[in-house]
Design a protein that fits this description.
single chain, alpha/beta, Rossmann fold, two-stranded antiparallel ribbon, 8 helices, 19% strand
Length: 227
Amino acid sequence: MAIDEGASFPPSLSAVMGDSETRRLVVGIAGGTGSGKSTLARRLARRIGQDDCTLVSQDNYYGDLTHLGLQARARVNFDHPESIDSELLIDHVRTLKRGDSVMTPRYDFSRHARATGGSELLSRGVILVEGILVLVWPALTELMDVKIFVDAPDDIRLLRRMRRDIADRGRDVDSVLGQYEDTVRPMHDQYVRPSRGLADLIVPGEGDNQIVVKFLAVALKALRGAG
């Protein structure tokens, strides 16, 4: 299948079709930590364009732990589904799919707590929902029109996580490795890896994924037109 190098969504399909008549597609993008799912989601969002795409990150929906001390927060299993405010996440995706905007929370990983304020997300024609657990909750997958799982070898995922947590989240090597052994790998085996079986499409998380991004942008445009 040949993909046009310049293929992308036209400037604001919502403006052309009328907001009330536009079909909104919810696309779930899951995968293990460090698999490349966030990179894929960001590139796809840029390819589609901000007028036609909204990106919802599971990372913003960790439960508020400000009632706990800092040491107690650090002991929480952040890779278990119960660490996520899934009811709020699902409600927000449902609201966006309905055509309304939401105020998404923000999370401070250095303090293991929600940050003050939030960010408004507008409902767009394509709603990308990205995170390690987004294919785990049936109530969320029922809202999805397309489910994608990004796959990468365990050693590559661990290296990527170490780089990210040290550079972006103020962690040290020992804490990253300890968390990986205690919770990240067990929860991946118990929840994330099995959710791979629910995916409509499995894409590799290694190397340059620009061709995959172009293909997905064209495919999503076709799906919206078919609606």
